[in-house]
Amino acid sequence: MSPSAAIVAAWIFWLVSWILAAGWSARTASRADLGAQSPSRVLTLAAVVMMIAAYWPAPWGVLWTTPVVIGWAMLALAVIGFAFAWAARLHLGPLWSDAAAPTEAHRIVDTGPYGIVRHPVYAGLLLAALATAIERGRIEALAGALVLVAAVSLRAKLEERFLRRDLGAEAYASYRARVPMLLPFAKFGAAASARRSGGG
Asked: How far is CA 12 from CA 3, 27, 100, 132, in A?
């Protein structure tokens, strides 16, 4: 099996397992918040289409050919990303929701993966997408990964708006000051962001 085929298999395994676990999701506190998610969902769909297109045979679009050793390293990073996303979902347990809106029993969780980044599911998927784009070395894959960065950033900011509103701006500002959004250990950036936003 080639690194490309192994990465595709890893994506399929993650996607199927994620969908099968969809029923294990808490009820959102406000259905009215769900409409605000549409832009991020459209961007996510566009990113997925681009990533899939990177596996279509085409005479154009190749930016580089990744050595096999680097390809296997990218597979390892993708698997780490998927594992980190799953660890975050399992850590939330009954608080998990597939919607950006807070759940009825939501509270600030700052332990486990959520003590490393505020959005570990998104961080894990971004790592997997970027590793896939590097291994594939095609314009479509790189464009898809970049669009996914935009989609995830938009959704994460939307979630944080809801969390500040529903859990308290001051309490969430304290969490933001301690834990970065998506890049692990970027605590200085998190603190600076919290100060610029006036503690929210």
From this structure: 14, 26, 23, 13
Please give the single-letter amino acid code of residue 178: R
Distance CA 155, CA 137 (A): 27
Which of 60-63's residues contact partners 24+ apart within 8 Å by CB, and which partners?
Answer: 60/139, 61/138, 61/139, 61/140, 62/137, 62/138, 62/139, 63/137, 63/138, 63/139, 63/142
CA 75/CA 80 separation, integer angstroms: 9
Over residues 116-131, the pLDDT tens digits come to 999 999 999 999 999 9
Q: Give how far the C-alpha of residue 27 lies from the chain's centroid of Cα atoms, to the nearest Å.
A: 21
Residues in the chain predicted with pLDDT less than 70, given as ranges, are: 23-38, 59, 98-106, 186-200
**Model confidence pLDDT, tens digit, residues 55-78:** 888 767 899 999 999 999 999 999
* Distance separating alpha carbons of residues 9 and 99, to the nearest angstrom: 26
CA distance 200 to 194: 6
* Averaged confidence pLDDT in the chain: 82
Tokens standing for residue 165? 């509103």
Q: How many Cβ atoms are within 10 Å of 24's Cβ, its own excluded?
A: 12
CA 150 – CA 144 distance, rounded (Å)? 10
